[in-house]
Amino acid sequence: MTSHSRHSVTGVTLPHLFRPSEIAEALGCSEWWVKEQARKGLVPYTRAGGAYRFTAEHYAEIIRLFEERPIRSARAPETAPTRRTRTRRTSAEPTTELVARPPRRMRQTQQLATAV
Q1: Taking the mean position of all CA atoms in its chain, how far away is CA 82?
Q2: Cα–chain center distance at 13
Q3: Residue 92, SS3?
């Protein structure tokens, strides 16, 4: 029997497929989260033998997908942002006076008192 390397039978170097637990450990999250993101189609994956598997390219893309960038640049803005002001109603506009309803208990006792 001759000794073969892992992929020498096919003559092609196949990519290493990582399990969700390995990806979760590298990302510092739970295995459930990784599987759930794959199930929802939010992260790239391959389905080998009915199980979620990830290549190194998938892992790099997952990191890029969840990367957050600063909102503003590091240097000071050249112009000050304009502040939004609220528009105030003029006295010419009609206003509606709100009137609170009496509590339900009070309405029930008033109905009982009028029924007697």
Answers
A1: 31
A2: 36
A3: coil
